[in-house]
Design a protein that fits this description.
Blueprint (H helix, E strand, L loop, with lengths): L3 H17 L2 H13 L4 E4 L15 E5 L2 E12 L6 E7 L11 E7 L5 E6 L10 E12 L11 H37 L1 E2 L2 E2 L4 H29 L5 H25 L11 H11 L6 H15 L3
Parallel strand pairs: 1-4
Antiparallel strand pairs: 2-3, 3-7, 4-5, 6-7, 8-9
Helix pairs in contact: 1-2, 1-3, 3-4, 3-5, 3-6, 4-5, 5-6, 5-7
This protein binds flavin-adenine dinucleotide.
Length: about 300
């Protein structure tokens, strides 16, 4: 089975096609994505635009039956080994508000002018590649514009992020519970002062906090997933789950590092990887700074004075 990180960006492309694509687009792309023959990705971020998605500079200009695409993307998961991407571009760079000029394309590799750039060397999360993509007068057929209508791209791209945030929350839960499991086992086998460190109160305080955090993260994630399954608007629930579970992952990984003492710093133990991987959960699918703002806006909206 593919690691979750690969699944997430692949899933968001599939979801965009499934929700917004034409029947012909669904028939052409989804079966090959479902079997894994095509590995998908989501190409939003650019060197000068991450959080400020509406600030992207990549353009697609209509020319006959094609669009001519120019610009570059960075930090794209599956960028190196992937085959096909949901590509966010500006079809009307002068549009105000800016989101109205944005469109989402299905961009497949192998076309002249579609260049795979460098693989980015990372702190962690090495099970999936992160790469740069460049487009130099690359021609994409107009029938690869998702839904066939310009100006829908911002909502098509960010619509999938609610599900993506629940996915990141679930990964946060996995990391928080995984770090807890490693620390729990270690604390029962490592002895100091004649007893397992699990019997020292300082370690018990850590484990008590870790298990509570992991449990709360799991319940919040299940709550967001249940609301999503009911078709509700879940930007607040998904944001809360993503924010809480990712911070829980970071805190639990750090506490586990401390429980492992000096051995936490050794590559012979898995805990150092949890510590490196956990930090990404605070960034992916919208940083935790943005999550708190999204949560607050939605909370105020749902509770008018
Ligand atoms: C391993 C990895 C995989 C990734 N995979 C993908 C992928 O598959 N596809 C893709 O498109 N992108 C991907 N990204 C990019 C990721 O989505 C961006 O890094 C993220 O959106 C943040 O953008 P940025 O790095 O440009 O930070 P910036 O937007 O420059 O933000 C820098 C800091 O400022 C804060 N900030 C920014 N604006 C505001 C504001 N208005 N209010 C308050 N605080 C603010 C941020 O929270 C952050 O702390 C990936 C990144 C990593 C590290």
């Amino acid at each position: 089975m593919a690691p979750t990180g690969i699944f997430n960006s692949h899933l968001i492309l599939a979801l965009a096609i499934e929700k917004f694509g034409t029947d012909a687009q669904k028939a052409k792309w989804l079966p090959r994505m479902a079997t894994g023959e095509l590995r998908g990705g989501l190409a939003l971020t650019e060197p000068d635009a991450g959080t400020d998605l509406q600030g992207i500079r990549m353009t697609a200009r209509r020319d006959g039956d094609d669009y001519v695409v120019n610009g570059s993307k960075t930090w794209i998961s599956n960028g190196i080994k992937g085959h096909v991407f949901a590509l966010l571009v500006k079809t009307d760079p002068a549009a105000e508000p800016r989101y109205k000029g944005m469109s989402l394309f299905i961009a497949d590799k192998g076309r002249p002018g579609f260049v795979t750039g460098k693989k980015i060397r990372k702190l962690g999360y090495n099970s999936i590649d992160s790469g740069e993509l460049a487009f130099e007068d690359c021609r994409l057929p107009a029938d690869q514009l998702i839904g066939g209508e310009e100006g829908q791209g911002f909502f098509q791209a960010t619509g999938g992020l609610e599900l993506g945030r629940i996915n990141v929350a679930a990964r946060g839960v996995g990391l928080a519970e995984g770090a807890l499991a490693l620390a729990t086992a270690y604390a029962q086998t490592r002895h100091t002062m004649g007893k397992p460190i699990a019997e020292h109160q300082a370690i018990q305080l850590k484990l008590g906090e870790m298990v509570t955090r992991a449990r709360a993260a799991r319940l919040m994630t299940l709550d967001a997933a249940a609301a999503y399954d009911q078709g509700a608007r879940v930007d607040m629930e998904a944001g809360m789950a993503k924010y809480f579970a990712s911070e829980a992952a970071v805190r639990n990984a750090e506490e586990a590092m401390r429980i492992f003492g000096g051995y936490s710093y050794s590559k012979d133990y898995a805990i150092e990887r949890y510590y490196r991987d956990a930090l990404l959960m605070c960034i992916g699918e919208g940083t935790n700074e943005m999550q708190r703002m999204i949560i607050a806006r939605q909370w105020v909206k749902r509770n008018p004075a």
